[in-house]
Description:
This protein is of the alpha+beta class. The protein has helices spanning 5-20, 28-35, 42-51; strands at 55-60, 63-69, 77-79. Strand 2 and strand 3 (77-79) form a beta hairpin.
Amino acid sequence: MIMNKTQQQIIFVLEKLTPRFKERSIPIGWILSDIKKSQFGIEQELDILEKQGFVEFQKVNNSIIGIYLKREGSEAYLAYAQNQNK
């Protein structure tokens, strides 16, 4: 699958944060600041990455509460607060 630049940046940031913060919650704001992108449109990019099989969302009542990065058998869990994405 071909990823656009924003999607590549998201995956890069998730890969970078995963080893350091495996047991800790990752706010979505950290990801946004690392990819230097406004909050507008980030959910669209994450949805595309999910459909392509790069990430998997953990949802509660249709609200995303976490992200699993699905690369090379990684089970690392990155959580973020839904309200920080509004």
